[in-house]
């Protein structure tokens, strides 16, 4: 199994702008993020790092190309079809002097809360079914008509060449199924997969003969009523006991374009029907691919969860925009590094549920055991005691 140092050195060789001093700090810092205990602040990290608090603060002001690094990290894994998931996330933050602090929507709380908001982009493998961080950017309302949809669209468009190396399919939740986001992203060469609201205004395509009357030829053949689909346009794709899937090419008035619409009707235990209206701007995309892509979008939430619970994403103490940017991206990248080493290095048939909690415990135990051996000048005789050393490193680990 590769170590963090070995993996990072392989990637840094392809990033010529990284000097040996920054290389040394990043290797130590990512290792520390996966082994420290407590809160992710400079004072606490210095207790586990070879760098003191002042050095960590100083290096946190340096810029680093996280997007390029994470793309190279993903390219070092086995090849598989991927999608790009985009989703904002709330981060708690007190005080009023931090750039971008305001009221943002927290999905966990189900309400607006005071703090920060980041918009993250992650690559999700269709085979591995796990998210790898790409880049995250803070939402900073400027009081001059800041629009989250335009902000998120610009994040994709401004780095389209790099993102297209990973995938040309961007998957977002229903909030982003608006013209302001979809149009600039699709014009940049991406396909968008998302979800429509139940009251969306969609229209069938007119397939009849010309009427012969003057004026513009008839284009549409009435509005789509989801309680009673027109089977002259919709096609039944899957029919199971509790679920039916229909697909059709329809026109979205709000998006001003034709889309592949997929309607998933699920019969609940109560006997009621639940309808989900998914869509893709790629008219040739299969219904099953649309559904799978949209469901895998949720993997980015697990990326946020692991970073918040185990790497301290929620505990950033900085009030500088660049330091916040580094704190957010380092935390999320650390989770991806752990996945690359401990999840993707195993055979597909042997893969188990990824548990960052157990991985952090292992790294802490290994670091602590190394300190004991060094301080007492013990000859560990690793070849003879490898089984006992492994047992101590795994002490306290839990199954996910």
TrEMBL record:
Xref: InterPro entries: RNaseH-like_sf, Transposase_11
One Pfam family it belongs to: DDE_Tnp_1
SUPFAM superfamilies reported in the protein's UniProt record: Ribonuclease H-like
Top-level lineage group: Bacteria
GO MF annotations in UniProt: DNA binding; transposase activity
Transposase IS4-like domain residues: 167-334
GO BP of this protein: DNA transposition
Record's protein name: Transposase IS4-like domain-containing protein
Cleavable signal peptide: none
Coiled coil: none
């Amino acid at each position: 199994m590769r170590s963090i140092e070995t993996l990072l050195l392989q990637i840094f060789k392809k990033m010529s702008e990284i000097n040996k001093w920054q290389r040394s700090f990043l290797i130590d810092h990512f290792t520390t993020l996966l082994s420290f205990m407590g809160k992710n602040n400079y004072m606490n990290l210095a207790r586990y790092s070879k760098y003191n608090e002042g050095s960590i603060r100083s290096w946190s002001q340096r810029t680093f190309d996280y997007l390029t690094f994470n793309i190279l990290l993903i390219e070092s894994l086995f090849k598989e079809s991927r999608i790009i998931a985009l989703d904002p996330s709330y981060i708690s933050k007190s005080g009023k002097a931090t750039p971008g602090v305001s009221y943002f929507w927290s999905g966990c709380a189900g309400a607006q809360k005071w703090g920060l908001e980041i918009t993250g982009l992650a690559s999700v493998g269709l085979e591995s079914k796990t998210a790898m961080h790409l880049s995250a950017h803070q939402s900073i309302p400027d009081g001059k008509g800041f629009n989250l949809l335009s902000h998120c669209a610009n994040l994709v468009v401004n780095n389209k060449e790099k993102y297209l190396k990973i995938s040309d399919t961007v998957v977002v939740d229903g909030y982003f199924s608006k013209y302001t986001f979809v149009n600039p992203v699709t014009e940049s060469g991406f396909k968008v997969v998302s979800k429509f609201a139940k009251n969306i205004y969609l229209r069938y395509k007119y397939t009849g003969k010309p009427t012969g009357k003057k004026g513009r030829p008839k284009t549409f053949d009435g509005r789509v009523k989801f309680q009673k689909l027109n089977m002259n346009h919709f096609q039944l794709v899957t029919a199971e006991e509790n679920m039916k899937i229909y697909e059709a090419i329809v026109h979205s008035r709000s998006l001003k374009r034709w889309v592949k619409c997929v309607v998933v009707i699920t019969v609940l235990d109560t006997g009621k029907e639940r309808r989900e209206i998914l869509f893709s701007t790629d008219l040739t995309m299969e219904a099953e691919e649309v559904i799978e892509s949209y469901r895998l979008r949720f993997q980015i939430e697990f990326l946020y969860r692991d970073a918040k619970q185990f790497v301290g994403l929620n505990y950033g103490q900085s009030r500088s925009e660049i330091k916040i940017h580094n704190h957010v991206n380092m935390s999320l990248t650390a989770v991806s590094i752990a996945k690359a080493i401990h999840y993707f290095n195993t055979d597909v048939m042997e893969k188990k549920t990824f548990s960052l909690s157990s991985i952090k415990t292992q790294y802490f135990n290994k670091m602590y055991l190394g300190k004991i051996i060094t301080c007492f000048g013990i000859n560990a005789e690793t070849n003879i005691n490898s089984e006992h050393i492994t047992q101590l490193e795994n002490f306290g680990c839990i199954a996910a």
